[in-house]
Every structure is written in structure tokens, then in C-alpha cells.
Amino acid sequence: MNKRANFATRLGAILAAAGSAVGLGNIWRFPCETGANGGAAFILVYIFCIAFITVPVLIAELAAGRESRTNVYDAFRTLPKKTILGRHGRIVWTFVGAMCVLAGFLVFSYYSVVAGWTLQYTIEAGIDSFAGKTSAQFAADFNTFISDPVRPALPMIAFIVTTTVIVTLGVQRGIELASKIMMPLLLVLLGVLACCSLTLPGASAGLEFLFKPDFSKITPQVAISAMGQAFFTLSVGMGCLMTYASYFSDKVNIVKDAFSVAFIDSCVAILAGVIIFPAAMSVGVSPDTGPTLVFITLPNVFQQAFGATPWLCYGVTVLFYLLLVMAALTSTISMLEITTAFVSEKFGLSRRKSAVMLGTVTCVAGFACSMSFGNWSDVTLFGMGFFDLFDYFVAKLVMPIGGIFMCLLMRSLGKEKVVSMLTNNGTLRLRRFAEAFYFLVSWGIPVLIMLIFLSELRG
Ligand code: TRP
């Protein structure tokens, strides 16, 4: 059997995992959720969810992935030891593995649609076609664009092809290299843009919205949204980082890396807020405009906020969309890797063949998602078009359910095994932490996820 691929360096492994986590979820979804759920209060609940729910699930995923050294599907089939799920345990685990692979395919399909929009906007900003547009024009142009059958499909396909090429290059020369180039660039861009935003007059109102909590705004709805966001932004619950961790070396300190990834990811989300809210509030735009915030409100906000200095306005706009493109790309790579690892290992195909095949099928599924904003808007299932349906299935069902099963997986391995996995066979001094972790994942976290999940289904 071939030797399985590995990340070459520890930094490469962290940057790849952080690249998966940092994405449209941070720069597009997070500001819009924060805006819709009352600002700082939402951020507090979100940080709680990250620290006490999704970071432990992330640790479980990384530990399971490294232990299994295989794709998600086979990991769920081979890892569980104690029969905590009763007589039909095997079938249940197989089902969970299959669900993760399916979700990996679906998330790549609909995410690519939005990623395509960001590419289109980068190009438009690059040829300076935003200058002088009014806010009504931004809205009208965006709606015409996304409902067109062909125009959004082109950047989407370009995006899928780029992702596929990087994945075919393999773990070290593709994923690791791309992350090592794009992640530092992305952090620098974020810093520069945040500084630009902070210099605007009236920026402090935006900061207040972000950092001064109004506790009366915390409702069950806010908790549900915060948990959903915490899962999505760390890419946990469907074996994405489990797949990456299967390429980790035995020496990686999983606990430390999980905290690093969560820290980088949260900083990026908050910095995105620092870019967006001060700019929006400095021109009197309310922050709760919803999902179109980044595509309709923001280009207009940049025009008004930086309009006095045309080169700055041009620069900020182009760099902002470029930032979105890079963030999205490091995430789509991780999505395609879930299914590529599965197909190539399960069916014995080469990485190249598997990735190209999956990329092609994704173009078709992505096209269906894109069309659900236009001609196919009335093709619905459970009252949702393809885009919303895929998003619902992945973010609202698979991720929390997958999260619960990641915890159950730890429980089925037993305390001693889990402690040995986290401490790298006793070489790291993390025994206390590992024991506390085992206790949390085998009781508290699944119950907490279940509670929030059920209230979501009811609501
Ligand atoms: N976490 C990424 C973001 O914030 C998205 C992402 C990457 C993802 N891989 C995933 C989401 C797997 C769900 C599942 O944009």
C-alpha cells in the first residue's frame, strides 16, 4: 500500500486547518449574523459556544482523524470500539460517515455559488465599475446578476476549477502550499482594511455596536444562531478537519492546534466586523441588513465612506473582495478534500481522477443552486430552493448531529484511549485537561447541542 500523505510542517498543518475555518463564514456570515442578532451580545454567546461546544468537538475531530489515518467514512466505520449504540451500532456509524461525505459534497456546491459572486465582485471592483453607483443601482445590479442563468455560473465554475487544481496537486504541494501563501496574505489584508475603517469619522459607533453588549438582547433565538455560526465557522461536525487531521503527524499537539485554529478564526471574524461596522455606521447605514450586507450595502458604504479619496476607495474595495476570494478558496479546498479522500481511498482511484470527477459533478450541483436564485426559484423541496435546501441540510442538520456523533465517538473509545490520543501516548502533560475533556464530550456537550438543536427544529 502507498504511504499516506502528510503535512510537511507543523505550521503548514495549522495554516491549512485555519484556512478551512476562515472563510465566507467569517467575513460574510458572521457580520450579517452579528448585525441581525444585536451586536456585542451575540458575540458573547458566540464566544461561549466556540469555547465550550465547538472547540471540544474540534479536538474530538482532530484526534479521531489522526487516529484513523483515513477518510471520514472509513474513520466512522473502523474507529468506534465499545458498542454504545447497541446492536445496530455499525449501521449507525456507517450512516454517519456517509452523511458527512454527502454533506461535504453539498456544502462545496452551494458555497461555490457565493464564492463565485465574490470573484465576480473582485473583477468588477478591479475594473472600477462601482464608482458613482447609487445604492438602488447596487441592489438592482446584484439581483439581476444572481438571477441570471449564465453570468454567476462562470465565476462559480472558475472557482471550482481552481479548487480542483489545488486539490489534485496533493496535500503538501497543493493544500499546504496554498494555505501557506494565502493565509498570511489574508491576515495582512484584514489588518490593513481594519485600519482604514477605523480612521473614518464616527467609527466609534461601529465599535460600540461590536463590543458593548446589551444583555437584554440575548434570547433563545440568539443562542441558536450563535451555535450554528460556531459550528459553521470552525468547519466542525462533518469531518472536514477530521480529514485534514488524518494527514497530521503523531507529534502534533492536537489540543494546542485546536485552540490556535479557533483563536485565529475568531480574530478574523471580529476583524471583519471591525472593517464592516465602523464603515457602515460612519455613513449612517444600519448594520442589520442581512445576507446582502456584503454584496449590496457594503460596496455602497465603501463608496460613501472613502469616496473623498478615489484611490483609497478603489483600493479598499478591491482588496476587500480579494480577501473574500482567498478566504473562500482555502475553505473550498477543505470541502473538496473530504470527498476526494473518500472517493480515492474507497474506490482506489487516483487523487487526480477523483478530484476532477467530483469537481465536475459539483459544477452541475452548484449550477442548480445558482439557478435557485433565478429561473428555478420555484423548484422547491420542503419549501426551499436548492441553495437554501443544501444550506439547511448541512448547517442546521448535519453539523449539530455530526457534532453529537463526534462526542459519542470519543465516548465509545473510552477514557484511557482518549487521554492517550490527546497526550500523544503520555508524552504531553495534558492528562488533567484530557480527563476533563472526556467528561465534557461524553455528557455535557451532546446534551447541550441536543437542547439547542431541538429548540431549533421546533422554532
Ligand atoms: N468554515 C468555513 C467558513 O467559515 C466554511 C467551511 C469550510 C465549512 N469547510 C467546511 C463549512 C465544512 C461546513 C463544513 O466559511
Describe the 3D structure:
76% of the residues lie in helices and 0% in strands. It has helices spanning 10-21, 24-36, 40-68, 72-78, 89-126, 135-147, 153-168, 171-198, 203-211, 220-233, 240-245, 254-282, 297-306, 310-347, 351-371, 386-413, 415-422, 431-458. Helix 2 (24-36) packs across helix 12 and helix 5 packs across helix 16. The mean pLDDT is 93. Bound molecules: tryptophan. Residues 20-21, 23-26, 107, 232-233, 235, 238, 240, 331, 334-335 line the site of tryptophan (TRP).
Itemize the secondary structure elements and their pairings:
Layout: H1 10-21, H2 24-36, H3 40-68, H4 72-78, H5 89-126, H6 135-147, H7 153-168, H8 171-198, H9 203-211, H10 220-233, H11 240-245, H12 254-282, H13 297-306, H14 310-347, H15 351-371, H16 386-413, H17 415-422, H18 431-458
Helix pairs in contact: 1-8, 1-12, 1-14, 2-10, 2-12, 3-10, 3-12, 3-16, 3-18, 4-5, 5-7, 5-14, 5-15, 5-16, 7-8, 7-14, 7-15, 8-12, 8-14, 9-12, 10-18, 12-13, 13-14, 14-15, 15-16, 16-18, 17-18
The helix/strand order is HHHHHHHHHHHHHHHHHH
Strand content: under 5%
Please outline the major beta sheet.
none
Mean pLDDT, to the nearest integer, reads: 93
The low-confidence runs, each spanning 5 or more residues with pLDDT under 50, are: none
Question: Which small molecules are bound?
Answer: tryptophan
Number of helices: 18
**What is the radius of gyration computed over CA atoms, rounded to a whole number of angstroms?**
21 Å
Beginning-to-end CA distance, first to last residue: 50 Å
Estimate percent helicity.
Answer: over 70%
Structural class by helix and strand composition = mainly alpha
* Overall morphology: globular
